[in-house]
User: What shape does this take?
Amino acid sequence: MKTIDKLLVISLVALSLAGCRENIEPILLPDNTVVTYPDPMVGDVKGFFLLNEGNMGSNKATLDYFDYESGEYSCNIFPQRNPHVVKELGDVGNDLQVYGERLYAVINCSNLVEVMDLSTAEHIGAISIANCRYITFDKGYAYVSSYAGPVQIDPNARPGKVVKIDTATLSIVGECVVGYQPEEMAVVGNRLYVANSGGYRVPNYDTTVSVIDLDSFTEIKRIEVAINLHRLELDRYGLLWVSSRGDYNGKQSALYAIDTRTDEVALKLELPVGNMTRAGDSLYVYSNAFDKQAQKHNISYAIVNTATREIVDRHFIKDGTESQIVVPYGVAVNPETREILVTDAGDYVTPGKLHCYDAKGVRKWSVTTGDIPAHIAFTHRRLKPATIVGPDQYDTNPYITSVFDYRPAVGQFVNQLPKYESGDTQAKMNAKVLRAIGNNARSLISLGGYGGYVIVGFDHTIPNVSGLRDFRVLGNAFCNPGTPAGGSCEPGIIMVSRDVNGNGQPDDEWYEIAGSAHRDVTAEPFYTIAKQAGLDVAFYTDYQITYYRPSAEPTEATAQYVRWTDNKQAEGYCAKNSTHLQSYFPQWIDSETLTFSGTRLPQNGIDKSGSGNNFVLYRFAYGYADNDVNSNVESSIDIDWAVNSEGKTVSLSGIDFIKIYSGVNQANGWIGECSTEISGIEDLHALGERIETR
Amino acid sequence: MKRSLHILFIFFALTYACATRAQYVEGDSLRGYSIADTVHKIDAVVTTAQRRAAETVPAQVLAGQELKRLNVVSVADAIRYFSGIQIKDYGGVGGLKTVNIRSMGTQHVGVFYDGVQLGNAQNGQIDLGRFSMDNMEAISVYNGQKSNIFQSAKDFASAGAVYMTTRRPRFEDSKRDNLRLSFKTGSFGTANPAALWEHRFNDKLDAQVSAEYLYTTGRYKFSYRKLNGYDTTEVRRNGDVSAIRAEAGLFGRINNGGWRAKVYYYDSERGYPGAAVREEPGKFRHEDRQWDRNLFAQGSLRKNVGKRYSLMVNAKYAYDFLHYLSDPREDVSTMYVDNRYHQQEAYLSAANEFRIADWWRASLSADAQFNTLTADLTDFAYPTRLTLLGAAATAIDLERFKMQASLLYTFVHDHTRYVGAAAGDRDEWTPTVIAQYKPLRNEELSFRAFYKRIFRMPTLNDLYYTFIGNKYLDPEYTTQYNIGAIYGRNFRRGIVRRVEVQVDGYFNQVKDKIIAMPSSNQFQWTMLNLGYVEIVGVDAAAQLQWQFGPVAVNSRLSYTYQEAQDRTDPASEWYGGQIPYIPWHSGSVVVGGVWRDWDLNYSFIYTGERYESRANTPANYAQPWYTNDLSLSRNIRFRNSTLRVTVEVNNIFNQQYEVVQCYPMPGTNFKIKLNWTL
Assistant: This one.
């Protein structure tokens, strides 16, 4: 019976401990992933926002942001930047637009338009509009379509309306009744065209486009088009393209165009339209009608030339990856690069996907989004980082506080990350590096190809705590899970040093962190396939490379750009590519050659396509910089892994300096040389994080 | 296409709401009628242990005093104390509450009211929140099926079952009338008077009439807070309910048998408070309303003919009406929806049992059911459904070994007003095998196992709901494997007087899961057979009875571990994710003490962390929740009557939690209950 008592007590305790809840839920932080190569040369379009609708009743409308310069995709940025907005963005995001320096999100089932600052995504205000659907702008006013017009005698025959908002005051200044259940709108000159759906009046759909005179803000006419109208796109010739959804049951969806000079329907194309977007003279269209009998979606893509008014292409995804999209749900085209973005809502109840294709329709990257990714708005402002936790938040500054040397090897981001400006000295460049990666600034610096390095210090000694990892190196690696895991892993070798002589300078003995390849290179998961692919998989501890300054700086892409030789009887050229045309040789260094030496890791980049357009850079198991996603445990290092120049394990009580150098000598086709990028180093103990060692 | 969105909403609303046809009745009051029997025994013997030991499938029962002491309002609240069960609760008195056994889905649960299944051809779900505890005498949950072969074919026809057994008349000594008046009031502006009258005409015939009225404003405060972020408290509105329940029954005895007949009526009006999502506070009032009317009559007859044959006949007629109204004149943000749904059901069942030998029995049952559904929707299909079921079963009962096998045949024929709109006919054969072994002659220890394969038909909504329905759907199949053990022991002295423990491990598969999936956009959904789920779980329950001098204490523990993984598409990023709302760990503790006329009861319910989507991401993470409830009762005895006064406090620590995303649950709430028995 004693045992029974005990059992009971144990069960009770177990139950109550089985999972205590945190008293107050924390704010959800964004999920950041570097999805593609950074583009420091980005033009006017700095990035884009993506609004995920979220399922009705789930309050899960979320906002994502992609930044071209860093190649980083951030999922769900709103809560962190707006912790005091009650219940976050809201329920069912239905439209997203940029106007001036603001971002407007129409949140349908929350009955409001959320207005944010474009460069911070911080809440400015919200305009409450019942059942709001889409938004467009003209001359300082926003126009929002809404299903919730005045209720008449027959509650079933309730028209919709357009609400006029003064963007300076965010106040409603007018309302204009239109047709039933209005959807998208377009401003043409001084008139606003509104597509009426009548979707609530099955089978008596609306069939008209309302035309509103913006001076008087009254409806002046209705243009008869077809049933259940939805999308509007104005082209460069005054033609307004209108989509009809059909009735989902016999009457097919189709594309119409209204000549806005005559306000008459100019043509009809038998092309089903789920969504469309225009860039230049190209109208990108997809359809995802569901066929009940066949139990599947009938998905189609097309490009319509608005000049010739013809379907010129039946596909805009050209690399055969079209079939990987389950349910296309949003489409956008970067007005500068003509990159195509297509979202995939998948099964609607789990996070969707965003796919990015280049102008030729070849997929560049994909990323997981929020639920039902749908609406994309490009921005000319780079989104500022969310307030980053600065060093003053901690008892001990966990971050880099000094940069002693920065000497990159040749590379496509050299002189860009950080940016070299004429006259910059080594000291100036060191200061720029500190500004980029010190004190948790989290910008990127590039170390260029093999050998390029940076040496940094801290305002305290990072202790070596037994059994725990001690510091984390932040980079821009991204990596898909799997065996072997790969993506863009550009490993840098890490060295540590203790300020034994106490002079505050890194002139003491250096010890190398012996990562997985240091211990057994053949045990790397990618070793076999790399060897089969004919890569140089040798591991050297005595490697030396010399780069030779080119006699002249070419102004366009060239294969034979910077010559290099090593001490293993190999030589070659670094190439210059067309996307990065600045000098790849560090400009603040005068010498004619650059020589680096140290350990050299095996090559890890394999061209999976065989034709040079799909390089996967595989991850080493552990112990290197820029080799695993920042949030993964293998971005953290245990000082106990340090070895001396003879490869013997040393026992260090702590370290004061860290040196990181690019560890692989390999050019990976169009993505360029394998170059380690660093965005910061963190003392885990100062942060209060406990990460067990391997 | 907000219209369809609304349709969708209503679809789901119905899926509950109307599903809720609070229904059917009927007293299983005859000897030999499994549950009534149970209740009887419980009253007499106090403990539920023996009878559970007799059960060869995992079964859990709450009955008699133990059930009374829990002071739960609805059947759904009582079921939360069982292991292997999840209750989906939309919050408040009026919020939908459905039960899911071992993660196979609500529509796989058969819910029986006094022995006859509550049907809902429209959406296959029963709102257990609408079944009052006022008249309830026992609640039991069976995995697989009740291990009794003498039952209607429908008893074999679901993956798990909940049996509600209402009170049947009992008269002490020579009393000919029982009268009970009760009144409950407390938080949420609740008033709940009820009355029950029983009369004995003669030793062959008893009657029972009961009625109840419930009103609640459904208002309660709820808070949402984020660390270093917002902190808001709002009031749940439009959650009011007013409902009337009335039942009348006759209970007769004949030679070697008995019969009963019952009429049940339920009429309610309620508001839909809606999801608690972001909105400008106070600007839009949710005013959607729903009216339900449920009426059914059911009867049952059982007779033993000779020593070797018994016959049982059940019959029922049910009518259910639902009216849903969303009016923009009340709430400008909504669109006008005004729909009425009518369902009818006729059901007849005959079960025959043959006792071939003392240790060997066999049975044959045949059921026929006819359902109709009409609605004032555009292009509505007006479906009718004929379901025929036949079951053959046999049971072997040796001293230490028991085994049962049954085979169920189901035939379904649908008809619609429009040619070609109906799904094709279906016929299916599904088996069950149950075994139990008792290794020791003198110990209450036994091992058990069962295998069951069963399916659920797509509901009429799944197949025919305007826009959403999909007539090409296949049935959704479940396969269950279970092994377990049960041990019990009595002690003559000491503090612990009885211990009973049961543990079961199981593996379930759900194939061709019917799910709602948007077609071309968020507001255009359809139903698809898309989904495969594997469930591995352990259910454990223990019951201990203690005696501390004059104080008798009964305690009950339950614990469930479940890994319910979506294994539909190995290529999916979310393959293997725990399915929505299924916690890995859940459990409950109930401790009740009796001292003279005083009853004190403490209960604790724990639901561990879980996710709101099979994408097990931080955004979909749901925190564990646990509630602590306390109640104190006293019986005050008068000369010819007893007054029982109960005071209870629920969710003592005012935990703010959600069972379903965006449907906040009440914090601390109080109740006072008076129960006067004459």
Summary: The helical segments of chain A are 2-17, 78-81, 426-437, 516-519, 527-532, 684-687. The mean pLDDT of chain A is 91. Chain A touches chain B through 84 residues (CB under 8 Å).
